[in-house]
What we know:
two-stranded antiparallel sheet, 45% helix
Amino acid sequence: MxxxxxxxxxxxxxxxxxxxxRGEAPETEAAINWDRLSAETEGxxxxxxxxxxxxxxxxxxxxxxxxxxxxxxxxxxxxxxxHARAFGHWDIVHATLDLxxxxxxxxxxxxxxxxxxQEPDGLVPGVIWVARxxxxxxxxxxxxxxxxxxxxxxxxxxxxxxxGSDDPIVDAYGPLTRQIAWYEQNRRAEPTGFWYSRTAxxxxxxxxxxxxxxxxxxxxxxxxxxxxxxxxxxxxxxSEWASRLLKPEEAxxxxxxxxxxxxxxxxxxxxxxxGFFYDIWSIDDPEKRVESFVAxxxxxxxxxxxxxxxxxxxxxxxxxxxxxxxxxxxTVAMDSPGYQRLTWRGPAWNSMSYWAARGCVRYGRKDAAxxxxxxxxxxxxxxxxxxxxxxxxxxxxxxxxxxxxxxxTSPAGTPKREYLxxxxxxxxxxxxxxxxxxxxxx
Length: 442
């Protein structure tokens, strides 16, 4: 089975580039059943959300580009409103999660596209710049030194569960173990945990308020809460997948490493008085603390204890003075001194509302997940009705997204329109429906 699936993975990558000689033709952009995705939106979520969801379904279509180097399959860009044609980052994970139940083949091909350019040392490229306005003839390019938040194994797991097959996991196990090796070689923090590169905005939170404190004066890299949680998830996925692939020794090794990170986050990155998780450099120095939404990640990946999760949810995520604004989840607590109406320093991103909801579900707080999803989708629909578009991020206090600032440096821009990558609205509405149905049945 492992050999057969490895060949399947190789063929899936190579056939579209070499030309199909026999068997079923590779998927083309025209072959994707977009009508199926559009039809789903007619009965999804609350009626007032459906025009927005229909628009998003069409945005998926308009954001899908034909296969061509460096992608073996039709690929999904960040969105036609982005300032450059680009693929990857955690944007492609969000788009993939949006597609899995309705267009699983298209979703799987995004995972293959994401892994097709993995470097020999295990690095999975962060953003692949396919075309930039300032360098139209430069060709595809990406950093070979920094990646992006490695959330793609969650999409693989969801796809495998939807298909009822281990094939996606068999295909992805090798790339996963190579990426883990890259993190262990290049991103270990002192004394433990993992870090993200500030200069490359590797955390995905471009120039967020935590960055200036992340490196000690002697050059030591401190542990990021989010990076440590994300690598913990890689270990857990690798352990579970190794068990399913009958590799018990590998499974045990990854589980042991995951356990070390779990203890570190639970004990060293938790501040009991505040009932909140912080980066290591600010635990004993309140002046360096940023009340950041990254405290959701111990819940999303399952590190937090039940009591820790309860406090984060009740005292913070559902607190209207902190993160539960008119559009949740604020990226920085609204009642904190550091809050700004600027990119990752305050505004709410629908993708992060989705992850927060998944974290709540993991700890049995479906009530909290429903509240977060409903309020985020309500706000998104209201602004869509007014502006006719979906925005990159939103104002937690409910103001117009176009009044927010996108950049930290001058001249300031505004959030991008027609932005697909951070708007997994279909996945959000499906989760809302599923949770609402469960609550009615109980």
